[in-house]
From TrEMBL:
Protein name: Reactive oxygen species modulator 1
GO cellular component, one term: TIM23 mitochondrial import inner membrane translocase complex
Keyword Heme included in the entry's annotation: no
BP GO terms, sorted: protein import into mitochondrial matrix; protein insertion into mitochondrial inner membrane
Amino acid sequence: MARDSCLARVTAGVAVGGAVGGAVGAVYGTYEAIRFKVPGLMKIRYIGQTTLGSAAIFGLFLGAGSLIHCGKSY
């Protein structure tokens, strides 16, 4: 498989999007858990849900953008 194949670009987009989305989701989830005074161990669950949700959505959109951008040549 060529290094610049469309699948490789989309996979890289999803991976980068997931990493950035996870980092942003962890920061935002921590802020929201403290702000809304989520009790006890529910904070861990809340932060985890926010992190995974943000990583999935951001990875999906960055992967879709990479797929759309894949067919264009400059």
